[in-house]
Amino acid sequence: MAYDWTPCEGCYCNKITVFDVENGKSFQPICKSYKCEKHGWMQQKRLQKALEQHFGKYQFIRMWTFTMTNRIFTDDYEHYFKLTQVWKRFITEVRRSKFLTDNQRNVQYVRVAEQHKSGFWHFHVLVDRWLDWHILQVLWNHCVQVETQITGKSGHINVKGILSAKKASYYVAKYVMKSAQHSYKRQKTWTKSSKISIYPLKQSDKTYIVYDHARHIWIGLEGLRTLTCSISKTTSQKRSLIDLFPDYIHRE
pTM (2 decimals)? Predict the structure, then answer.
């Protein structure tokens, strides 16, 4: 991977340096924040392209919208995190429901949050197969009631079909960028079911160690002790690492 551009000003990536144990070189990592005004659009394009390839495998693409009442919440922060708790219970209920077939219980999804004009949140969820609306509505309403201790109807869902993988990926990327501007520090802009792999797994024979300039600590220092033991001959490229970490080098 080519690191041909620098992180944005104020980004955490500016505060760390990555050292390549294999060749002794160092670099700053790429900024991958959707919130970054300078580089966020690159991450959006990267996500959209990966999702388009993924959704292209689906025979049918459906987007579900899950909403929850906000009448008992004092702010959108509290509403969002209660909504995530409801979702966790809901997807567990789906996996276990006797009213759904084995195929339906194995549904895979990509989920993204969107904020209403009121400031409160709802989820858009793209799934890879047909599901019965009536069953899911009952399950969702039940999960909302259990988590919020509200009686009566307090949650609603709807669904619509999407004609193409390109359009589906555009929707998700758009919602990710939109929610990134208003998300909280620990909020995930998007998530997926565990069996889905959006980005291909990287195969690398390189090993990196990271120095955090802000905290003045080495990240993954324990791994360094083992890695450097294998360096028995000093090359011009590796000499810089040996000079940096004399206490962790064991020469034969």
Answer: 0.74
More confident residue, 246 or 10: 10
1-16 confidence digits (pLDDT tens): 333 345 576 676 777 7
CATH 3.30.420.40 fits 48-188, yes or no: no
CB atoms within 10 A of CB 35: 16
